[in-house]
Amino acid sequence: MAEVKRLDKFISECFELSRSVIGKEVRARHVLVNGEIVRDPATKVSVGDLVQLNDLEVEVFDKLYFMVNKPKGCVCANDDANYPIVFSYIEEYGIHSCHCVGRLDLDTTGLILITNDGQWSHRIASPKHHFGKVYEVTLAVPIDEQQIKKLENGILLNGEKKETAPAGVTVKDPLHIELNIFEGKYHQVKRMIAAVGNEVLELNRISIGDLKLDPNLEPGEYRFLTEEEIGMF
Ligand code: URA
User: Fold this and answer.
1) CATH number, span 65-126+211-230
2) For a substitution probing ligand 1, which of 75, 106, 187 has the most ligand atoms within 8 Å of its CB?
3) Residue 16 has what pLDDT?
C-alpha cells in the first residue's frame, strides 16, 4: 500500500502528543506497527497499518471528513473561553488536526463540514467554484416582492465594495424562506436580510453544493462523509 506519512506525525495528529514525547515512547519500545516494535519514529506508515501506543491502538488513516448538525450555542473555532466548540461533538482520533469549512454563527444551526484536508475545504469555500449554500431562514416580518427582488439581484452590504452575488430565494410561506448564496461573507445572511428591512429570527443551513444535511442527524450528531460526498467538491 502507498506510503502516507511518518509514524511520529501520524501519532501526534492522532493522540495530540508532541514529537519529543513520541520519541521517548519509541525508545521505550512502547510503539508497535502491525504488531512489531518500532525503533525509528520516522518509520513510514500506510493507510490501514495498525499502530499501538501502550494500550491505545488505531488504524492509520489519511484524510478525515465529517458532517455535523451544529446545534445552537456552540462555536466553529478551535478553542473558546465561553462556549463549547463544534469539534467537541466528534469523538474520533485525529479530530484536533481538523478545521471547519467556513463558519456558522453561535445561534445558527445545521450543516457544517469538518476536515483535515486543506485543499478540499479551500475548494468549497472559494466563490470561484460556485457552490451554493442553502439556509432556511425564519423572518421577523412577512417577506414581500420588493425584498425578494433585492435579495435575488444582489445587495451592497455595509462596509463592502461589491454587491452580493445574485441569490436564490424560495418562499415557503411569508415568514419562512430558503436562501441560496454563493459567497461566505461575515454574517452574510443576517446582513442581507437586514439590508432589505427584515430580520432573521432563526437560521439553519441545509446544504452546501449538492451535499444535504443528513436528516438522520439530530443537533450535535455527526457522521463521516461517504466517498461519493467527498467527491462532490
Ligand atoms: N450567514 C449568517 O448571517 N450567519 C451564519 O451563521 C451563516 C451565514
Assistant:
1) 3.30.70.580
2) 187
3) 87
What topology does CATH give the domain 4-59? 3.10.290
Q: Output the CA torsion sign for 128, 130, 136, 139.
A: positive
110: its cell numbers:
445545521
Instruction: Give the residue, by CA position, lying nearest to ligand 1 atom 3.
Output: 187
User: What is the pTM for the complete model shown?
Assistant: 0.91
| CATH placement of domain 132-208 | 3.30.70.1560
Q: Is 118 helix (H, G, I), strand (E, B) or coil?
A: helix
Q: What residues does 99 pair with on adjacent strands? A: 115
pLDDT at res. 62? 86
Q: What is the pLDDT of residues 47-61, one digit of tens each?
A: 999 999 999 999 999
Per-residue model confidence as pLDDT tens digits over 115-146 = 999 999 999 998 889 899 999 999 999 999 99
Going from the Cα of 208 to the center of ligand 1, the distance in angstroms, rounded, reads 13
**Which stretches of 140-215 are DSSP H helices?**
145-153, 188-195
79 is catalytic: no
Kindly report, as residue ranges, where domains of CATH 3.30.70.580 are found in the chain: 65-126+211-230
Q: 192 CA to middle of ligand 1, Å?
A: 10
